[in-house]
Design goal:
By secondary structure, the protein is of the alpha/beta class. The protein is built from eight helices and ten strands. The longest helix has 18 residues, at about 175-190. The chain is globular and about 55 Å long.
């Protein structure tokens, strides 16, 4: 079995607060892996550490075969081009239209001619359900759902193997949220993606996630199918999944 991400004995400390201590997880190739936990449990911090945006204080993190501890600048750049990130608020550049936002990684990290970049942008727009005519719009002109899709298209610009999603359905109405869930499932299958997702959307968790990890008390207290979550005696799980288990 091939693991895309392996986290072993992770320790994270902020000042006098220990966020993670002895945290372990393994994410299999091709799965949608969800992370939940109480506020302050270190979910977003864990994602930031996987993305090399936050240094760790102990243990190891391996992503796509690279050990992030002591990774060289060259290898770090190679690795960053193999993942895409959808931030919670989209993080589109407000001064750039949608075409320019999606094209930016291709312009920065490839030597492709502009004509080919435009063709790639059109393809990425189409696979997330946007029209070519949407490409000339600016982020301020987009609905919440369109903004999420445009941000997703940019995250997929470099044909990543790995996709990180931070609260992907946050701020969407229920219909748009379920539409986005269906899109993620479709793209995972079409593009052979491995997806890591932090979410508080219970319906999304049940509809999309293959493996669910629950962080509490500095560790992963559950790692498995969401359908078996009721076997765990934990206050957060009982509260969070109330009505579902």
């Amino acid at each position: 079995m091939k693991y895309i991400i392996e986290v072993t004995d992770l320790k994270t400390v902020f000042g006098d607060k220990i966020v993670h201590e002895g945290l372990n997880l393994k994410i299999k190739e091709g799965e949608i892996y969800g992370i939940v936990g109480p506020s302050g449990s270190g979910k977003t911090t864990l994602i930031r550490e996987m993305l090399m945006l936050q240094e760790i204080d102990g243990g190891t993190i391996k992503v796509l075969g690279y050990n992030l501890s002591g990774i060289s600048y060259k290898h770090a750049q190679e690795l960053r081009q193999q993942w895409g990130v959808l931030f919670q608020a989209g993080a589109l550049f407000s001064s750039l239209n949608i075409r320019e936002n999606i094209a930016l990684p291709l312009i920065e990290y490839s030597d492709l001619p502009r004509k080919l970049i435009d063709e790639i942008v059109d393809f990425k727009l189409s696979i997330v359900g946007l029209k070519s005519s949407d490409a000339s719009l600016f982020p301020s002109q987009l609905s919440g759902g369109m903004k999420k899709k445009a941000s997703l298209a940019r995250a997929l610009a470099m044909d990543p193997k790995l996709l990180f999603l931070d609260e992907p359905t946050s701020g969407l109405d229920p219909i748009s949220a379920r539409d986005f869930d269906a899109l993620i499932l479709k793209l995972r299958d079409i593009l052979k993606l491995t997806v890591v997702m932090v979410s508080h959307d219970l319906q999304s968790i049940y509809d999309t996630i293959n493996t669910l990890a629950v962080i509490d008390n500095k560790k992963i207290i559950y790692d498995g199918s969401v359908n078996n979550i009721s076997t765990i005696d934990n206050e957060f799980i009982k509260t969070f999944f109330k009505g579902y288990i």
